[in-house]
Amino acid sequence: MTLRPQPVFEFGKIDLIGHSLFVVTLLGILADDEGKRATFRSASLLPVRYASTLIGLLALYYGWHAAAFGTTIL
Question: The pTM is what?
Answer without folding.
Answer: 0.48
